[in-house]
Design goal:
The complex is a heterodimer of chains A (119) and B (112). Chain A is mainly beta. Chain A contains no helices and eleven strands. Classes of the chains: A mainly beta (119), B mainly beta (112).
Chain lengths: 119, 112
C-alpha cells in the first residue's frame, strides 16, 4: 500500500524558514518523480515543485523559484521541501504527491502539513 | 502557461440525480505523443485530493462507475450519473500536457 506522510509544518514568521518532510512507503521511491502541491486556506490547488527519482532534475513554480528547494534522500525514502524567505501568501497545506510515471498525473497524495506564515 | 477554467464553480445537486462539471483549457491538451493528459480529482471535506480519472476517461481503481470523463482538445466534462451523499466535495481538473501542470479553480458540489 502506498503511503505518503508529511511533517514539519508549523507557525513561522515572515522571512523565516522551514523544512517539510514526506516519508514514502509501498512503492519504489528511488524510481519515482515526486511533487509538492499546496492549498491555501479555502482555496484551490497549486503545484509547487517536482523532482526526478535520482534527484538529477527539479522544477519549481514561478511563485516559489529562488526561495524553495526540493530535495530527497532515497536511502531514507524521504522527500523534502526547504522553504526560505517565507511570505504570508505561502500559508497553505502542503501535500506531497507521487507521480504516475508515463501518465503525466499524480496518483497518490499524502494527508498534508499546514504551514502558517504570520507575525 | 495554460489556464484552466471550470463551470459551474458551485453545483447544488439532488441526491440520485445526475451532475456535470465542465473544464476548459486555454490551449489544446493533445500532447505531441498523441495522448491527452487531463485528470479529475475529488477532495472531500477535510481530506486530501483523490484522483478519480486520468487521461480524460480512465477511472482509477475503486472509483465507482457512476463517474465518467469525456472530452478532447480544450473542453472536458466530468459526469456523475446519480449523485450520492459521499460525492459531496470539491472537484478539480488538472492538465498534465503542458509544463507547468495546472489545476482548475475547483467546483464545489453540495446538496440542494
Amino acid at each position: 500500500e502506498v503511503q505518503l506522510v508529511e511533517s514539519g509544518g508549523g507557525l513561522v514568521q515572515p522571512g523565516g524558514s522551514l523544512r517539510l518532510s514526506c516519508a514514502a512507503s509501498g512503492f519504489s521511491f528511488r524510481d519515482s518523480w515526486m511533487h509538492w502541491v499546496r492549498q491555501a486556506p479555502g482555496k484551490g490547488l497549486e503545484w509547487v515543485s517536482r523532482m526526478r527519482g535520482d534527484g538529477g532534475r527539479m522544477h519549481y513554480a514561478d511563485s516559489v523559484k529562488g526561495r524553495f528547494t526540493i530535495s530527497r534522500d532515497n536511502a531514507r525514502n524521504t522527500l523534502y521541501l526547504t522553504m526560505n524567505s517565507l511570505r504570508a501568501e505561502d500559508t497553505a497545506v502542503y501535500y506531497c504527491a507521487k507521480d504516475h510515471y508515463g501518465f503525466n498525473s499524480l496518483d497518490y497524495w499524502g494527508q498534508g502539513t499546514l504551514v502558517t506564515v504570520s507575525s | 502557461d495554460v489556464v484552466m477554467t471550470q463551470s459551474p464553480l458551485s453545483l447544488p445537486v439532488t441526491l440520485g440525480q445526475p451532475a456535470s462539471i465542465s473544464c476548459t483549457c486555454s490551449q489544446s491538451l493533445l500532447h505531441s505523443d498523441g495522448n491527452t493528459y487531463l485528470n479529475w480529482f475529488q477532495q472531500r471535506p477535510g481530506q486530501s485530493p483523490r484522483r478519480l480519472i486520468y487521461k480524460v476517461s480512465t477511472r482509477d481503481s475503486g472509483v465507482p462507475d457512476r463517474f465518467s470523463g469525456s472530452g478532447s482538445g480544450t473542453d472536458f466534462t466530468l459526469k456523475i450519473s446519480r449523485v450520492e451523499a459521499e460525492d459531496i466535495g470539491v472537484y478539480y481538473c488538472m492538465q498534465g500536457t503542458h509544463w507547468p501542470w495546472a489545476f482548475g479553480p475547483g467546483t464545489r458540489v453540495e446538496i440542494k
